[in-house]
């Protein structure tokens, strides 16, 4: 593992626990046991670091999705993935994701790269999953983007309202539509 990867791991853990909104680059560096200059050296800026953090968390989630999609029953895989991404232990990472996502909306200079990490990287594995469920390539592609956006909206709903029962019911209804409809 490279020094930048080790440093990124430490930053991920600190930001999962503390969020980023109220933390300066110096505070993040202190929490990760390094200096702000090392963070700038490896990531270029606070935004670059945050994009790298979210990219790392997203890559972990895509790895989890790949492990689940080996199941023969795709709906069961979708349900298992939903349980994973909405587990209480992952809530800090999900909050961080939405914080950085909102920041990217106001920072067009780095939002394009961020978009590639958090949108474009998800579309091929989701399209593959939906094609394996019997959808045409065009339909699978459209449903992949719909699945990504809907899942993120439902996660945001859960984080804001805490209404697990209602959000889980909505997710189950969406999964039925995604694979059957």
- Supply Rg: 17 Å
CATH topology name: Tetracycline Repressor, domain 2
For the residues shown, what is the average pLDDT?
Answer: 86
Structural class: mainly alpha
Strand content: under 5%
N to C succession of SSEs: HHHHHHHHHH
- Which spans have pLDDT < 50 for at least 5 consecutive residues? none
Overview of the structural elements:
By secondary structure, the protein is mostly helical. The protein has a single domain, classed as Orthogonal Bundle (Tetracycline Repressor, domain 2). Helix content is 81%, strand content 0%. The chain has ten helices and no strands. It has helices at 3-18, 25-32, 36-43, 46-68, 74-85, 91-105, 108-120, 123-132, 137-161, 164-180. Helix 1 (3-18) crosses helix 6 (91-105) and helix 8 crosses helix 9 (137-161). The protein is elongated.
Outline of this structure?
This protein is an all-alpha fold and 181 residues long.
Summarize the topology.
Blueprint: H1 3-18, H2 25-32, H3 36-43, H4 46-68, H5 74-85, H6 91-105, H7 108-120, H8 123-132, H9 137-161, H10 164-180
Helix pairs in contact: 1-2, 1-4, 1-6, 3-4, 4-5, 4-6, 4-7, 5-10, 8-9, 9-10
């Amino acid at each position: 593992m490279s020094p930048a990867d080790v440093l990124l791991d430490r930053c991920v853990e600190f930001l999962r626990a503390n969020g980023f909104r109220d933390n300066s680059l110096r505070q993040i560096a202190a929490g990760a046991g390094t200096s702000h200059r090392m963070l700038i050296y490896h990531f270029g800026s606070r935004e670059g670091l945050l994009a790298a953090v979210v990219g790392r968390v997203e890559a972990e989630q895509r790895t989890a999705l790949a492990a689940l999609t080996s199941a023969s029953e795709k709906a069961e895989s979708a349900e298992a993935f939903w349980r994973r991404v909405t587990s209480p232990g992952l809530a800090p990472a999900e909050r961080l994701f939405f914080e950085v996502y909102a920041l990217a909306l106001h920072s067009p200079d780095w939002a394009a790269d961020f978009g590639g990490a958090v949108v474009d990287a998800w579309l091929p594995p989701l399209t593959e999953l939906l094609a394996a469920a019997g959808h045409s390539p065009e339909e699978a592609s459209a449903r992949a983007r719909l699945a990504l956006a809907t899942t993120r909206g439902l996660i945001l709903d859960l984080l804001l309202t805490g209404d697990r029962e209602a959000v889980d019911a909505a997710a189950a209804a969406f999964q039925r539509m995604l694979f059957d409809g």
